[in-house]
Design brief:
Number of helices: 10
Strand content: 15-25%
Distance between the termini: 88 Å
Structural class: alpha+beta
Number of domains: 2
Strand order of the largest sheet: 1-3-2
Radius of gyration: 38 Å
């Protein structure tokens, strides 16, 4: 295959004139369909322009009317190159070599993708190792301060953490911010709860933090009394 762009370049013609020559060829519609294909390309100003891709037969028919010694030389070179490539496509050695080249390129691409994935996994593993002592530290701080999670309080009350959070929300004690339950401002300075910040790695391997609220012993007693009074009411 070759293109109208290449023909214009080699034969020293303006591309628009080559397009005109192709579109005014005195050949059958069947021959035109089999040997010329309309394509597009981006010019130097990044605009989409028309061009044609053609077979050896299409090329031969097109340039048949081009005259002059130089035109004759170019015709011979084009036809010789077409024939050379046709012979290559009949060669088992060439086909095998080309197939191996394509396979090699695919393997390289897969290896590059695998290396990228492994680098991401190594980065996440490193971040997790860096987080480990921080998480252990925060757990010790929580234990040392006697902070209690909503899950533990809910279990003592015979319900799920989700059910307890919903009850406290309806009572105007807590509300949700970006998926996390936090106390309303009137309860934040009562000593009922304390917040702790935890680091984590997101799905893209980025280091981030999240804030969790925990109840104090005073806060747990407040919740128990609140629910008991609610039942009596």
């Amino acid at each position: 295959m070759t293109t109208s762009l290449k023909v214009a370049e080699v034969f020293g013609k303006e591309h628009k004139n080559v397009l005109r020559d192709i579109e005014t060829l005195s050949c059958s519609d069947e021959f035109n369909r089999l040997n010329f294909e309309l394509i597009s390309y981006q010019d130097s100003m990044n605009r989409e322009q028309r061009a044609y891709q053609m077979t050896k037969d299409g090329f031969s028919f097109l340039v048949m009317g081009y005259t002059g010694d130089k035109a004759g030389q170019f015709k011979e070179r084009f036809i010789a190159e077409f024939n050379h490539r046709e012979e290559l496509l009949k060669s088992d050695e060439y086909i095998l070599a080309r197939a191996m080249e394509i396979q090699s390129n695919r393997i390289k691409m897969l290896e590059a993708n695998l290396e990228t994935s492994q680098e991401q996994l190594r980065a996440q593993e490193t971040n997790l190792k860096l987080q480990a002592p921080k998480v252990e530290y925060y757990e010790k701080v929580l234990d040392g301060q006697g902070l209690i999670s909503t899950t533990i309080i809910a279990k003592d009350l015979g319900m799920s953490a989700n059910a307890l959070n919903n009850k406290l929300h309806k009572m105007g004690v807590i509300y949700q911010v970006q998926g996390a339950w936090v106390p309303y401002s009137r309860y934040q300075d009562t000593g009922y709860c304390k917040s702790k910040t935890f680091p984590y790695v997101d799905k893209d391997g980025k280091q981030k933090t999240v804030i969790h609220f925990y109840w104090t012993e005073k806060g747990r007693q407040f919740i128990i009394n609140l629910l008991q009074n609610f039942k009596r009411a």
